[in-house]
Amino acid sequence: MLKELRLYRQYLRLNLLAGLEYKGWWLMFVQVLFVTLSEPIVIILMFNRFGNIGSWTTERILLIYAIAVTSFGLAECLFRGFDYFPWHMIRSGNFDRVLLRPKSLFVQVSASVFHIHRVARPVAGLCIIIWSLSRLDVQVTIFSVTMLVFALAGGILAYPGVFVMSSGIAFFTINALDWIYIFTNASYESTRIPVDYMPRALRYMFTFFMPMLVISYFPASVIGGFGGAIWRGWLALPAGALFLCMAMFVWQYGVRHYKSTGS
Predict the structure, then answer these.
(1) What is the pTM of this model?
(2) Residue 116 domain-assigned (yes or no)
(3) What is the pLDDT of residues 186-223, one digit of tens each?
């Protein structure tokens, strides 16, 4: 396990140094930071113009949104290789080379891609979390910080689960995988909809299948003090771990049935 962690760290270090060689990396970083911070402006303008939606305020919506964005951003930074896997490894035949190396397939694939500018997304998400909590007058306590860490940890497990699952499916088809983005970019975008007004099918899908609401809405409602049983706030980490385990099953099934590209 320690050897795999060292290998993973070395992969990320090499990719980070390679990214820093690109002189314009900081421009891309600023661009992603600006886009992520500007997305909530629509919510702020709408609420300022029309007022609150029932009990839902700008700060409540943005807290849920920021937890989801931060989780997704961290997962995108640390497990980007699985997001690129269908095209960079399956279609190109590079996965055949990976199979020949006596190292963990999960580590090699997950750390094969790292984009330094993607770090801007979790940075922006953390800024929005801090702003929302300050506006909600939430006191910083061990309880609130621990629950927030658990929520982010659950998201760091759940979102890679989507990448891993799509990679497992890619062994059987590398086309028609665009639907998977419903559970990544589209999922955290949907947190801008108040949960009470979210379509029931969407609410159930993001609770019992891909636990996006479990890792964002449940802990946010407890931390922000706007409803919800306390025990639900602690479900983020186990829910994320369970979803990742399910995704790993799909991944392992695909690896066992991989037939090579023949190239």
Answers:
(1) 0.89
(2) yes
(3) 777 778 788 888 888 888 888 888 898 999 999 999 99
Q: How many domains in the chain?
A: 1
Is residue 230 included in any domain, yes or no? yes
In a domain, 263, yes or no: no
Residue 261 lies in a domain: no
Name the residue range of residue 113's domain.
2-255
pLDDT digits (tens, 9 = 90+) for 181-196: 777 767 777 787 888 8
Query: How wide is the angle at C-alpha 248 spanned by C-alphas 245 and 250, nearest 5°?
Result: 120
